[in-house]
């Protein structure tokens, strides 16, 4: 589950003493949440996160509402507000649920859409697993382990160094292999593909405040992770497999690992490959807008 390495993060917290203490506080909360009953941490994080967004970041709500109206102009105001509330609820719960990844299956919370063995369906290698940020996307790490898959990623930098540490710990606990976020990681990624491994990359993303993918009717471009994925798949003749998580009632999760799909063999223009990948992910996101992490971002 990779986002392009060295991607700039405008909101990156400066390494001040206060922010280092805040990093330590976030890591401490994560360690505490890991030991709480599985539903308690998400409940606590939901309350505090939603309140913080509504009071300190009202633009998140405003942009989410505007984007929902843009994507679903036929919806009533009441339905739009329901989706906004669902979006905030998903964000809030995800904060606490990160600490519970690795315990979800034992609690009976993970369902595979296609119960047939993923390893049997993914027997052609290398494979590029293209993922999107829906539901609690970190649950995919646990699901990959359950499926017996060894998956490599290059993680991005998040808002804080504490968050970087938390997500690295979570993913390594769930047997994901993390490559460095520099030229060494890029070489390792290329080697992974050359040796027939599985490399995962998130193809919905925001850079410098701009939504790079999905396209949502805009012209295809090579600047984002859709372009990166298209180049990798074409260079190594690797099929792509769509992966995503949907939140279901009672805080259960439905995980989808799609069948490997080859890029069209007769494509000459790389932008057509980008459009092909976009057409795989965009319907998934449009169907689950209220569970999509980037709903509040401009495009």
DSSP strand tally = 9
Q: How many angstroms separate the termini?
A: 23 Å
Strand order of the largest sheet: 1-9-8-2-5-3-4
Overall geometric form? globular
Secondary-structure element order, N to C: HHHHEHEHEHEHEEEHEEH
- Report the β-strand fraction as a percent range: 5-15%
Please summarize the sheet with the most strands. Answer: 7 strands, mixed
What is the structural class?
A: alpha/beta
Poorly predicted spans: 1-11
Q: What count of structural domains?
A: 1
Task: Give me the number of helical elements.
Answer: 10
Account of the protein in words:
The protein has 299 residues and is an alpha/beta fold. The protein has one domain (17-291). It is 45% helix and 13% strand. The protein contains 10 helices and 9 strands. The strands form 2 sheets. It has a 7-stranded mixed sheet, with helices on both faces. Strands 6-7 form a two-stranded antiparallel sheet. A hairpin with a 2-residue loop joins β6 (205-207) and β7. The longest helix is centred in the N-terminal third of the chain and has 21 residues, at 77-97. It is globular and about 50 Å long.
């Amino acid at each position: 589950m990779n986002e392009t390495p060295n991607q700039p993060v405008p909101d990156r917290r400066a390494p001040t003493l206060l922010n280092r203490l805040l990093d330590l506080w976030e890591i401490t909360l994560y360690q505490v949440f890991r030991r709480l009953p599985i539903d308690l941490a998400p409940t606590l994080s939901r309350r505090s996160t939603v309140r913080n967004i509504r009071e300190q970041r009202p633009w998140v709500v405003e942009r989410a509402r505007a984007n929902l109206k843009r994507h679903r102009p036929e919806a009533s105001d009441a339905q739009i507000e329901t989706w906004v509330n669902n979006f905030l609820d998903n964000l809030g719960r995800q904060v606490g649920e990160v600490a519970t990844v690795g315990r979800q299956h034992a609690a009976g919370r993970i369902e595979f859409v296609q119960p047939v063995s993923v390893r049997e369906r993914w027997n052609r290698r290398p494979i590029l697993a293209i993922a999107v940020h829906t539901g609690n996307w970190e649950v995919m790490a646990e699901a990959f382990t359950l499926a017996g898959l060894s998956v490599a990623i290059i993680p991005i930098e998040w808002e804080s160094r504490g968050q970087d540490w938390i997500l690295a710990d979570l993913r390594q606990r769930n047997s994901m292999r993390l490559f460095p976020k520099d030229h060494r990681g890029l070489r390792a990624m290329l080697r992974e593909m050359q040796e027939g491994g599985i490399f995962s990359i998130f193809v919905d993303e925001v850079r410098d405040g701009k939504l790079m993918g999905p396209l949502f009717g805009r012209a295809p471009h090579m600047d984002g992770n859709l372009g990166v994925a298209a180049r990798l798949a074409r260079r190594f003749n690797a099929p792509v497999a769509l992966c995503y998580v949907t939140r279901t009632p009672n805080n259960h999760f439905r995980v989808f690992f799609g069948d490997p799909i080859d890029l069209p063999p007769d494509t000459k223009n790389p932008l057509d490959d980008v459009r092909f990948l976009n057409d795989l992910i965009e319907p998934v996101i449009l169907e689950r807008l209220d569970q999509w992490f980037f709903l509040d971002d401009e495009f």
